[in-house]
């Protein structure tokens, strides 16, 4: 058996889907192989290169029946190349959708998720315990929290607090994420702010390899319409309002000189200009662009629950002495795709960055086109990327410094040629950078993706706890115990019992003191099973006396004559159950049964221990059918097919069995004979409930 556990997480974004495959040691092997340092750390989770395809799953909102073949199958095929076939049945798969799916109607979203789950179940062998758990649209706050986990996991803030001491007993890093539609922030406030805003925090619980629990209190929020695409849309709307309808050309300081684009962002050439259609014309003034994008922050919107940063959304005060932030997604692409690639020294500090942005965004569009064609900034930079990067740069600078408040202190004293990025990246390798902000894409070769946070949390949930009262891994409201909104990290929500706990103490704690709402029904069902077992073990005579005491007298007389239904059942319940099991399981056809003689062998197993492909049936009572052949184990594939397709044949097979079978008592007494040697006539079968005739 393999020592590895795998996990598949699909990031279903608005523009496309990415499948990430993660691997970690199974809990028992991890404990066995771990060093002392590793025992006091989270499980080691490694990732493989992901695959991204376009468009996003949300484009199938009106055609959910096409999402499997046209979208998911390519992702599944890639996952199959990484996850060994023998491990797939134990490998959980998650599809977690973000901004794009949130824009669909409730009906479209529900139908699409149902189709995704059904297709995954029917075409793959991956582990799916609950559709709602494995396929869901996650809120921006959850996305931000997973990203916070991923960043701190890679930076080492969880496993070695003493090496990441930022002061004031703080050792974790803040997380910033910006996509096309929204932006997220997640950080652990300092002690004073954490106490003051305790109700606004999320309680996050891990389990280390040795079973120890680690808890963190994190603030996370999202700003809708603060992603780069939505911010651009709001900017264009404001520009259209600024100029009346008589203006066809709208001056745009966020575009290079001479560039003309439509209100939707498409680059326009002279042959595409359509009469008096309104469009933007670049004026190449980056400082003016900064001033034009600043109002989009909505800094001065009423703050109902102070303090607030943007758009009236509450955020606890950030202590930048101890809160050091990493930014991913657009924070990385906007600062590095152009403003890093064309330079030997890879820099992001505000001074160097703005110098490069000013130079680029003050250029003529024709010159930029030549550089794109010459691949000055690499193969990935296209004309559309170059056309929109000046707006993105102004939006990012405003978000960081005027919105979130990342300090600019000391930047004016930096010397020309200062390589801030190199210093910060070197600090990351040493597990401890102290800059207020740094954009990152990979740390130690692993991409900082929120999907990694999901995988780390899941792997931690599989570590067995040290004792029975250990709380589950996951996150929820900042309350003691397991709050109502708690989201379990793994598929197994049951707390593992301690090896040192006695068996009696384990079941008593689970049934009487557990946190599951099902513990009372479980206890009731357990007592019912015990009562039935005792009743069956007390013997026929005691059961008969019980019937005489409890049942009405007329029912007792009928029982003494031949059963509550007027006739004693001529087949034992075990015989009937065996026969029904064989027919319903699809292991044989009803016509492959033949009857044994009445004096058959009693109380033996239906099948012998012979594992060959041909097996002979044995009788376990009067009239037990003999199984002629068990042709192939491949019949297991049709285990449920026979019943639905040949239900009429089954009924016929059962009827034949009852017509040709009778009890020894009836033969001895000769009761109810219609003619010599014929089976007993019954008005109805007590088991089948239909009339049986000769």
From TrEMBL:
Basic and acidic residues composition bias: residue spans: 661-674
CDD domains reported in the protein's UniProt record: ASKHA_NBD_YND1-like (cd24039)
Keywords: ATP-binding, Hydrolase, Membrane, Nucleotide-binding, Transmembrane, Transmembrane helix
InterPro entries linked: GDA1_CD39_NTPase
GO biological process, one term: CTP metabolic process
Segments for region (Disordered): 661-694
Transmembrane segments: 520-539
Sample GO molecular function, one term: GDP phosphatase activity
Gene3D superfamilies: 3.30.420.40, Exopolyphosphatase. Domain 2 (3.30.420.150)
PROSITE patterns per the UniProt record, alphabetical: GDA1_CD39_NTPASE (PS01238)
Sequence positions that bind ATP: 180-184
A cellular-component GO term for this protein: membrane
Pfam families referenced in this protein's UniProt entry, alphabetically: GDA1_CD39
Active-site residue list: 143
Assigned protein family: Belongs to the GDA1/CD39 NTPase family.
Protein name: Apyrase
Lineage, opening ranks: Eukaryota, Fungi, Dikarya, Ascomycota, Pezizomycotina
């Amino acid at each position: 058996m393999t020592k590895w556990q795998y996990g598949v997480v699909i990031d279903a974004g608005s523009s496309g889907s990415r499948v990430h495959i993660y691997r970690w040691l199974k809990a028992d092997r991890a404990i066995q192989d771990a060093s002392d340092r590793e025992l006091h750390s989270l499980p080691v989770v490694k990732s493989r290169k992901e695959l991204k395809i376009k468009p996003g799953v949300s484009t199938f909102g009106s055609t959910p029946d096409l999402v499997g073949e046209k979208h998911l199958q390519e992702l599944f095929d890639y996952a199959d190349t990484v996850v060994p076939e023998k491990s797939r049945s134990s490998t959980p798969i998650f599809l977690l959708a973000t901004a794009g799916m949130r824009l669909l109607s409730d009906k479209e979203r529900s139908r699409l998720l149902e189709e995704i789950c059904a297709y995954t179940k029917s075409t793959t062998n991956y582990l799916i315990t609950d559709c709602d758990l494995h396929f869901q649209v996650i809120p921006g706050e959850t996305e931000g929290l997973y990203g916070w986990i991923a960043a701190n996991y890679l930076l080492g803030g969880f496993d070695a607090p003493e090496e990441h001491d930022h002061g004031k007993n703080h050792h974790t890093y803040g997380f910033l994420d910006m996509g096309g539609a929204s932006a997220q922030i997640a950080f652990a406030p300092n002690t004073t702010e954490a106490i003051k805003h305790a109700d606004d925090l999320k309680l996050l619980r891990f389990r280390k390899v040795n079973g120890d629990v680690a808890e963190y209190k994190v603030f996370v929020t999202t700003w809708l319409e603060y992603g780069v695409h939505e911010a651009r849309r709001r900017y264009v709307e404001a520009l259209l309002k600024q100029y009346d309808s008589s203006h066809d050309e709208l001056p745009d300081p966020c575009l290079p000189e001479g560039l003309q684009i439509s209100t939707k962002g498409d680059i326009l050439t002279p042959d595409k200009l359509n009469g008096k259609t309104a469009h933007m014309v670049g004026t190449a003034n980056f400082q003016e662009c900064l001033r034009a994008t600043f109002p989009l922050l909505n800094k001065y919107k009423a703050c109902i629950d102070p303090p607030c940063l943007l758009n009236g959304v509450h955020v606890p005060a950030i202590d930048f002495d101890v809160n050091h932030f990493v930014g991913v997604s657009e924070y990385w692409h906007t600062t590095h795709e152009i403003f890093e690639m064309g330079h030997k020294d890879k820099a992001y500090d505000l001074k160097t960055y703005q110098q490069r942005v000013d130079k680029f965004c003050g250029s003529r569009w024709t010159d930029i086109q030549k550089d794109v064609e010459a691949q000055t900034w690499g193969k990935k930079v296209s004309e559309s990327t170059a056309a929109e990067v000046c707006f993105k740069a102004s939006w990012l600078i405003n978000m960081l410094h005027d919105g979130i408040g990342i300090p600019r202190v000391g930047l004016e004293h930096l010397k020309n040629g200062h390589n801030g990025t190199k210093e910060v990246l070197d600090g990351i390798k040493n597990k401890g950078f102290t800059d207020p902000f740094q954009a990152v894409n990979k740390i130690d070769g692993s991409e900082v993706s929120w999907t990694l946070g999901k995988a780390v949390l899941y792997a931690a949930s599989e570590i067995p706890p040290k004792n029975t009262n250990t709380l589950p891994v996951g996150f929820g409201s900042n309350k003691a115990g397991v709050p109502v909104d708690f989201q379990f990290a793994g598929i197994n929500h049951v707390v593992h019992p301690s090896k040192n706990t006695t068996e009696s103490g384990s079941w008593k704690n689970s049934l009487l003191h557990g946190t599951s709402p099902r513990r009372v029904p479980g206890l009731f069902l357990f007592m019912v099973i015990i009562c039935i077992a005792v009743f069956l073990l007390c013997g026929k005579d005691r059961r008969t006396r019980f019937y005489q005491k409890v049942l009405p007298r007329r029912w007792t007389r009928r029982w003494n004559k031949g059963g509550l239904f007027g006739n004693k059942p001529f087949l034992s319940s075990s015989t009937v159950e065996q026969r029904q099991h064989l027919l319903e399981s699809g292991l044989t056809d009803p016509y492959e049964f033949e009857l044994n003689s009445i004096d058959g062998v009693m109380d033996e197993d239906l099948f012998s221990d012979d594992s060959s492909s041909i097996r002979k049936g044995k009788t376990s009572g009067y009239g037990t059918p003999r199984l002629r052949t068990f042709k192939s184990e491949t019949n297991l594939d049709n285990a449920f097919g026979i019943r639905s397709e040949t239900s009429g044949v089954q009924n016929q097979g059962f009827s034949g069995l009852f017509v040709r079978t009778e009890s020894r008592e009836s033969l001895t007494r000769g009761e109810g004979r219609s003619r010599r040697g014929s089976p007993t006539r019954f008005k109805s079968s007590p088991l089948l409930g239909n009339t049986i005739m000769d």
